[in-house]
Each structure stands twice: as structure tokens, then as C-alpha cells.
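Build the 3D complex.
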Amino acid sequence: MAAALLAEGRAEVPATFSLFIRRLPPSRAFLVAAGLDDALAALADFHFTGEDVATLARVASFEPQFLEWLRDVRFTGRVRAVPEGRIIFANEPLLEVEAPFAVAQLLETCLLNIVTLQTTLATKAARCRHAASGRTLVDFSLRRTQGADAGMKVARVCALTGFAATSNVAAAAHYGLPASGTMAHSYITAHESEIEAFRSFVQSYRGDPVLLVDTWDTPTGIDHAIQIARELAAAGRHLAGVRLDSGDLVAESRLARDRLDGAGLTDVAIFASGGLDEYEIDRLLGAGAPIDGFGVGTNLGVSADAPTLESVYKLVEVDGRPVAKRSPGKATLPGAKQVWRRPGFAGDVIGRLGESPPESGAEPLLVEMTPGADSVAAVDPTEALAKARRRFESEWTALPEPHKRLVDPAGYSVELSSGLQALSRRPVRAGMTAREDRSPA
Amino acid sequence: MAAALLAEGRAEVPATFSLFIRRLPPSRAFLVAAGLDDALAALADFHFTGEDVATLARVASFEPQFLEWLRDVRFTGRVRAVPEGRIIFANEPLLEVEAPFAVAQLLETCLLNIVTLQTTLATKAARCRHAASGRTLVDFSLRRTQGADAGMKVARVCALTGFAATSNVAAAAHYGLPASGTMAHSYITAHESEIEAFRSFVQSYRGDPVLLVDTWDTPTGIDHAIQIARELAAAGRHLAGVRLDSGDLVAESRLARDRLDGAGLTDVAIFASGGLDEYEIDRLLGAGAPIDGFGVGTNLGVSADAPTLESVYKLVEVDGRPVAKRSPGKATLPGAKQVWRRPGFAGDVIGRLGESPPESGAEPLLVEMTPGADSVAAVDPTEALAKARRRFESEWTALPEPHKRLVDPAGYSVELSSGLQALSRRPVRAGMTAREDRSPA
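Done.
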């Protein structure tokens, strides 16, 4: 397409593309916008190396003129986007790119991939946080994420939504997060006995250890942990907790709490892991399980119940004229846009860029960004994440509870402005030509 | 754990870990083994740079002795594995690593991540192939895969299972695959009219083009494509096909076929895309839709109905002694293993390594591999993939149809050998110690 646009002399015509989520997955009434910092970093770094161009020449048949154009192309456009950590809803543009047509078109796959993954995972992580009601959450997902790349991003968005730590050491180092992990069953099975395994572990482990107590028989494992807690106390140290990774976590956590309390170890915490997600955390806490922290892995790491979003990147304006497509079920709204939020999450309004706010106090969500300048992700990923996290905390506190429900959440009101309605509402006739369908500039 | 093993003087004790899938996801009766070449490449490249070690020292508190050990550690063990492209079933080891304990333990997350992703995606791709019954399949998934890494791997395993091409140009170049793509709706909406967009596109496109006909009104789009086909024919060129990306694909593909045939264009193919997966392809073909090829995207790229596998990497032998864990629902089988396949997929037998085959003609699935030597992935990913693809073709032809069914597939018989049963069957008492639970060497 870019080659065709160049051949037609239209590669440099100004075009606006809008990235939004067409429909929310089942059980979701909101999304957490994420991935913008990486998207901006990608825009700032957009270029084709000599090797890339040689590869393209080998894989497909292109005019030399196009290959030359690729060699020099950079992102020279403008971006308006919703800052990371904000709550957004279906059909609201997350990101709008205004750039030379061929450039904006070439960015489609890259921008969609980055924003879709992180927004999917951040939303899942926020749901886990809602279910955990203030208990500690740790990201345990790296071993089964869809690739190493996804493993880094899930650690990032977990931190963004308030997780305490990650088991991904590389992500902890890259994003400045606390790293966390505990022993595995293999460590226990490799020792002469469970108590010897515990003793060896706490000897080498410098912090306050957490002991995995379900390798063979959980009640015995808890008793062994109690014995270790006493040995540690005698040495002036502290057992942080025990971890349960299998079985009936309600019954086993109660048993563990009873025995620990009975031994005077009321400050030893109970951690749970193994096949958890927001639904299971909610069920466990609803059943009164005395669990203080959750290690959440695979179902979070792949967003198992909704592993993707219907994200799209659509041309909405070209050469100053709003455009749209009318494909059944996939129609788009023409023109560059702004999203206004009424105070207190009282409803959003999607309008045309430049329209007045729907009421005084309404806040515009899309903010002008300069790739490379506003994006500090490439130079300081820790600082970018810290800003996004503060933004999320403020949004999360304000978002009314009914929208956060795990099942059958209350829908949120998103209207179209009168200006956008007027632009979109023109009658569609079968057999119309594109020209007839064009909205006036 | 590795630091604790080193402090105990057990880092170098020989240990065997077994990687297998505990249970198959719903609707799956088989899996396609994939990811081995990348796993072997990772083993061959296993090391910690000076920077990695400095990072670890910063993130956590380790003894200098352990950090020194990390600086020199390499993979020095042995690997037995099921070659890529073979069909496997639940509980069958895909990969067994025999290495110094601390080394084998450190590899867990990396090996699980690589093998889980590619096996998940290869299985999904094989199901799409089954549904397509010989029609052309193209991987369209990159824009919504869970990261760029996953986007490369899905293109790879699609080729492994018989897809014709991928829209991921980087993967096409890296793995030596045909690259494929067509125009997007944005290209059409940016032109004065649909027919002008088609005309411009075929002028710049050097091959046989495929035209996207559903941007505004599909019947009109088909008529425009017919007109272009005639113009191309007059210039000695050929229209490869039309693509439908929305609406009622059964009705629209029939309409397209009727009009194309009516115009004498029986050799112009019909491609479909938009929210497809194996279930939808099966439904379309079952309803008699005259579709010649499918572009399969998001649902394939994230394996939407089963985005992960219950893959585990378990210690099964240490210092020559078989070990197991007994956690409820997560018990493991002790000892190093071999999997035997009876001829004609008549059943598999999981046995102890070194046991005799269950019958003459039974084939061992796990093969000794040397990381770096057998793995040509790092040096020639194209050749490694070609070998895996030939292996898959042979397996796929032999696998009986009932196991391939998309819904309620027939289960496949996997037995334990008498030797493995004897080793595993020892009674478990509550409160036993690890020593009592140990199987005899």
C-alpha cells in the first residue's frame, strides 16, 4: 500500500489514523490504557536500516523509488493519545496519529501490537487487584507468557496497576521493581526431607523467607515451617510466610492460619498460588480464606479469559477530509476526535477534534504528545512507569465500583457529540460510490 | 534456589528435569510439539554476562561465591527431546534435561516459556489446517499477537503446520517463508472512489493482485473487481482474487462466486478474513461457502480458545534417585523416561528410560540431542523449519481423523509401562517424610 501511495504521489498527503477498541470482551466494562510509552518510543525510533531495505527487496518486488523512500523515512507527524494508566471504554480513540499517509499506514501493525498487548494485560491485572481487595499481589507469570516480550510487559503493567512485585528478574531490573520468588517443589524433593530442605534454604536466603509447604503433605509442611520459624526467631530472624500451591486453598489456608496462630506466629503470612486469576481470588476471599498474598501466574500472563482486544487502527481523515468505512459490523466514525470525560466518571463524550466540551469541567482525554520528548520510556522506563502508576491510582479511586465488577459489570455511558453525530449520520445507499459517501470537509 | 544449592555443595549434583503438559485444554486431543529448536539454541547460548551478574547483585542479595559461579556457568548437560512437528499427548515428556542441578533449575522458566508458546500456537494452527480441508491458509495475526516475539513464532509454527504464507514480513525474511498481504480498507477510503483505488493498486502491485471488495457495498465492490479483472486481462495480467473481510461470508462468497463465474472469471479466487478461527472456517465450509483461501488472524495468533498449556518442568531424578511430588492434583511420575509409540498411532506407552519397547515396531519419541549441534535454528532457521515441517506432514497424515475433530475429539490411549507403574505406585502415607517417599534408586 505504501508503495502504491508513493507511485500515485500521495505518500506525503496528510492523513489521520485513529486507534480504538471496537468492542469490550465479555465481563469487561472498562480498559486500562497501557503501552503508550513503548508506542511513542517506537515512533521516535521508526526507520528502516540498509539491511531492512535489502531484505524487503529480496522478499517482495518493489520499485527502486520506493526502496529509496524507505531508506530515508522517519516519523515526522503528530500524536494525540490517552496517557497510560487512564481508564478508557469501547470506541474511544486511545491514540491518533497525524502523519504523511504512507508513514501513518506503515505504523499500523507496530502500534496495534504494542497497545493491544499492554492494554489487554493491564486490564486483567486491574481486575486481579479489584478481586484481591488490598491483599498483596505478585506477578508469577513469566514461564507461560506468550514469549519473552510479553513476559516483560506483563511485569510492567502489573506494577502499573499496583502489584507489589514480579518473579521476572529481568523486568524487575529494567523497570526498577521489587523482584520476588520462592522455592519450588523441585528444591524440596531434592532434599533428604522437607525440614532439611527448609533449613538449607533459610540458611542461604538473606531476607525473610517464605516456605512452600505443600510438596508432600500440607499439615506436616506447616508444622515443619513452624519449627523453622522458631529456629529463625532463636537466631533473631523472621519467617515471612508459608506458601500453598495446590489443593483446597480455603481449607488449607484455614488450617495453616490455625496452626500458625496456635504457635503464636500471628505475624507469619499465608501466600497462595497455583492457577489463580481474579475469579479464583474472589472465590477464595468470598469463602473466608485467610490468605494475605497471591502469586498470580498464567491466567493473568495471557489474560486467559480475554486474551486479545478488538483493537483497530482506522483512517479517519485524509487531506483534511473526514472518511469512514461502512463494512457491516465494522463501520467507523469519521474525522479526528477528542474524548471528553464528565467529572466523577459521569459519562464520556466522543466528539470531533476542536468541538467545545460537552459541559464545563469535562476533561479531554487525548493529549498532544511528541514522540521521543514526552516518551521517557526509552531512556528512563522506571520514571515513565511511576507516572503511569500515579495516574492509574487516581483513576482507579474515582471509577465507581459497579464498573469494576468481575461479572456483569455496569456499562459506562459513552455518547457521541452532536458534531460527530452530524458527520456520521449521513444516509448510506447501496451502490453508492466512495465519493458520494465522503463526508464534507 | 540455585544459590542455596551452591551453598550446600549440591549445585553440581546430576539432576533430571522433565518438561510435559499436565492436561490438554478443552477440545484438544493432541498437541504439535514445537519450540525445540529455539530451546536448544537457548541452551547452547546459556550464560550470564558481566552486566547480568551486576544486575542480579543489585536486584537481590547474593553471596559473592554464587555470583562468581554464575559468571562461568554454561550448559554442560544432555537433552533428550521429541523432535519438532511430532504429535504428542498429555503427560508425555517433550523434553528431558540432565544437567548439574543448579544449572537445570535455572533453565526452567526459559524452557517452559519457549516450548509452551510454540506448542500452543502450532496446535492451534494444525486445527485451522484441519478445518480448512486443503484450502489455502495465510497467517494474518501479527497486529494482535501478544508481543513481537509471539508474532515471529506464530508465523514460524503456521509454516510448520502447512500454512502457505504470512503477513509478517520480518518472519518471512527470517524463516524463508512467502510473504503475503493485501490492501486495507484505509487504502480504499483514501481514494476518490473504489474503482480508482483498485486501479491505482494494481498499477503499483507487481504480482497478481487480490482486491478487498467490502469497504462500502460488497456487490458493487465485486462488480468493480470484475471490471479491473477485464482491464488486467486486456494488459495480459491476471486478478488473483477478491477478499471479503466482514458481513455474512457464506452469502457474500456465494454472491461473489456467482458474479465472477457469470463474468467468465472462474479462476479468480475468493479469500475470506475477519475474526476467523478453526470453528468459523469449519462452519463456513460446512455451509457450502465457496471460499478458496482464509486469512486467519487474532484468534489463531493468541490461540484464543486455549491461550496456554498446563506445561510443567519437574525434577524427576537427582543423584541417580527417582523423585516425585504428591501435591493434590499435581503429583508427578518419578524417573527419567522414554515414550514409545505403537505403529499407526495405536497408543503410546510412557516408560522408564532404558526399559524395553512395549512391542516390536514401537518407536521411541525422545531422541538424544546436542544443543548447538543438532539445533541449526540459530544458524539456519529455514532448514530447521523445513525438517520440522516434513516431520509434521508425515505425522499428520498418520494421525487418525477422530483425534483431529475440533469438538469432542476422540481421546488417545497413553499407558504407563509396568516399570513406571511399579516405581510410581508405592503407597503414600500422610505425614511421611521425604525420605520415606523416595523411590528406591
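Residues 108-132 of chain A form the longest helix (25 residues).
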